[in-house]
């Protein structure tokens, strides 16, 4: 065997090496050697309980959060639907009823 690992996305044994990357001809997934554990190099975002969050999840706020630049407060138990994960300090982008578009830190939410 050539020592080239199976594709981490579709498990195809037909992956090949092209320069510094491995490429799967079946699903067109590309990955760097040594990054087989993380699909697409994406950062894994976890909630306060350690559950993995994904785009479109519904979460609940576990702490009163003051909204910067206003007198509004996001109360404990506020349900936030259809979250979107983004890179940065505030890793959840969402829309909260009565407040609007805002960013949240994953450490202050729990998955429903």
In terms of DSSP E residues, the strand content is 25-35%
Terminal Cα span: 45 Å
Give, in spatial order, the strands making up the sheet with the most strands.
1-2-3
The average pLDDT value, as a whole number, equals 88
What does the overall shape look like? elongated
Structural class: mainly beta
List low-confidence stretches: none
Radius of gyration: 19 Å
* Number of strand elements: 11
Could you give the order of the helices and strands? EEEEEEEEEEE
Which percent bin holds the helix content?
under 10%
Number of DSSP helices?
A: 0
Largest sheet: 3 strands, antiparallel
Mind explaining what this structure looks like?
This protein has 112 residues and is mainly beta. It is 0% helix and 29% strand. It contains no helices and eleven strands. The strands form four sheets. A three-stranded antiparallel beta sheet has the order 1-2-3, with no helix packed on it. Strands 7-4-11 form a three-stranded antiparallel beta sheet, with no helix packed on it. A hairpin with a 2-residue loop joins strand 1 and strand 2. The relative contact order is 0.17. The mean pLDDT is 88. This is Zinc ribbon domain-containing protein YjdM. Pfam families: YjdM, Zn_Ribbon_YjdM. Belongs to the YjdM family.
